[in-house]
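URGENT: need a sanity check before tomorrow's submission.

F., can you look over the Sugar kinase record below? I want to be sure the sequence and structure line up before it goes out.
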Amino acid sequence: MRVMPRKPAAGPASGAVIGVDIGTSSSKGVLVGAEGALLRSAVREHAPDRPGPGRFEMSADVWWRDFTELARELTAAAAERGVSVAAVGVSGMGPCVLLTDEHDTPLRPAILYGVDTRSVSQIERLDERFGTAEIIDRCGSALSTQAAGPKIAWLAEREPATYARARRLYMPSSWLVRRLTGAYVLDHHSASQCTPLYDTTALDWYAPWAAEVAPGIDLPPLRWSGEAAGEVTAQAAAQTGLPAGIPVITGTVDAWAEALSVGAQGTGDLMLMYGTTMFLIHTVPRPLTSPSLWGTVGALPGTRNLAGGMATSGAVTTWLRDLFAAGDHAELVRLAGESGVGANGLLMLPYFAGERTPLMDPDARGVVAGLTLSHTRGDLYRAALEATAFGVRHNIGVIDGAGGDIRRVVAVGGGTRGALWTQIVSDVTGLEQEVRTVSVGAAYGGALLAAGLLGEAPVDAWNPVREVVAPRPEHTRRYDELYRLYRALYADTSATVHALAAMQSR
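Structure tokens as predicted:
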């Protein structure tokens, strides 16, 4: 796969590029050389606000603060190496809903993607208003807590005084573009997750539904992720340390940038993103839809995807790390490795923040079954890793049922750095996974897109395969039985956890 330039940019082809990604729990930046070498990486930790059950928000000030700090650190590193920064790539978690007034003043913190489940009643109302089948047919996806449209409707209904002042819609990547260049744009992929505002056949906003769901909002002009949105202004240069006049790409949602970073955008490819949440992106030869998945426009022109996302994955292991007061994950990973297949008879449902695909159940909750007084920290940590793997297998089964054709699996993200998690996923699914040399994720994908503005950026040359994780058949056979129990456990406990979820929201 090659990322081709859509608009040639000025600047030396030998210059370095910077990629920055705004994530759920941290922002990451990379300085990448002309041949794809990772020259420097940097991280800024942050945490979303949780103003109530099922609600996740973040201030846009956090996004800009993180970006400026990362940009200054990375441009200083470039200066130390005697290289110039020639372009900037951005990405971010999404779809998020940040509303501003006509002066670009944020009116409230942004509502985050599918981990925020506040819009259930709006989903029900919009389904009744427009028709579930009609929404899927036009927009590619059923309405769910992942979709931006119902969250806009929630703001209009629940915070009318604030909404009355709203004029523009931003996500993390488009907010950075606005602050850097003054351009008000959004990429097609991010727009395709604004269901029901975007028509995936026409590749444009669908005016009748947009006017009803998001009245008064001047929706942004649309571009493809790799197109130049504009150039760094003098004011932004003074704030960030970036050279004025260099191009900034339009950018996209983090998971799609991650897929680009490892070349997982060919037909038949499936990207698995190991992070705070687990994300799956399958590239299909033609538009496919499923009520249990998201059918989206791809990051690159002419591509289509079936995508899925779990509400938690690494978030659960981080919760366990903090609960156990462990300094880092390494010791828990070691103990989980000693626990062995099946975590000594523990089975976990990883629905600690509800579940996105394929359950589409914001009221699902985490369950740990089989606990005894003999179970250890390692057993619980192993059960969490296996729960994520079972969730991946569940999504893959639904992708296959919707007409997908998975020919290659590529793993990316922080969770690939240790061998255990990826091995468990391969054992549970029975599928091989490629792991590329650079697995820092979306920031690297943004840098690759930025390099595409300067010329061709072949992913295989930038980021070759480091290893292939193969399933172990004897483990796969043992996991088959556990997977059947996993699927039954949700059905057997759903009434109880739904009642508990209702109590939690009082």
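My own read: The longest helix spans residues 473-504. The chain has a mean pLDDT of 94. If you see anything odd, call me.
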